[in-house]
Give the backbone structure.
Amino acid sequence: MDFQIDRSDLHTARFVEPAVAPLAEGEARLAVQAFAVTANTITYGVVGERFGYGDAFPIRPADPGDDGRSWGRLPAWGVAEVVESRSELVPLGMRVRGFVPMSSEVVLTPGKVDPGGFSDVANHRSGLAPVYNRYRTLAVTDEPLPTIDELRRMVHEPLFMTSLMIDDLLSAYTGLDHVVISSASSKTAIATAHHVGSRGGVEVVGLTSPGNRTFVEDLGLYDRVLTYDGLAGLPTGTAAHVDIAGSARIRAGVHGHYADRLRLSLLVGQTHWDQASGVVGQRLPGPRPTPASQRPGRCEPSPRRVRRQARGPSRRECSRWVTRSSGRARRAVAAAVPAARAGRRRRRSVRRGHRTRPARGRA
């Protein structure tokens, strides 16, 4: 069973029972046991045509009037098990976690095998960053569903890895006074703020909605927290903008404030996807907004970078929030991050505004 979306209109979707095609030599068929649906999943659909996510899992034409491009399978992060294989590299029963479609099964072309897993080397996925093509092995089990830890990881771990890539990009820019992160309450923003703050030497500024301001301040990861209607309070100096909100209005406000003092405008997400008019090519003061995936030579953090980020008490402790369940994400992050910061060598003051009851709303 496939859950397919209209590639020109995300509001239109359908369920399709596709015909099962025989495997080609070197391919493997995996049954998808579970996948996570988060705000990040919607982003894959919104920016899928531009970043290549829409082509990660192509479909066969469902009827004579369908060219195979009108509809697509929305990707997500999940767990799958090999149920049929014509590849010598992967055995039956092998379980992996990684990028999967919202479908009951997926066909992969395993390659680049090592003790930790394999990569899908199919031609149609060559344009994706390597992290999206990587599948990590899991323990074999007779249980029909993933373990609690596996479920938690499929929700949080991919975004934690994204934050490592963002910080890797930012580390190449010297002389920055501030890093401004929009959608500051999102999982990607929280992890990015942790990594940037751990490096030191730069003020981390979080932009969020009024309803989420108290939550963001209580994280203790941002030196300064502003709401979207308070962009006039942005500090002066040189800055980089990590745009996770994807709002054209917010982006214009940040560019207008810093102008030529803005060294980098990095497009990462679209939590405000309905306000994303003019995301790429928008004429603004300062540097041209650039998708993170298009930054040359930095598609994913190096293994050395990942190991370095994993060292030290604060990083080990902070990684615990990645394994929390999605239903308790906010409380888990709020509880885990202060404990992580207790082991940090450098403490930073956090400006606290008027304390109000946390409310649901924009990130």
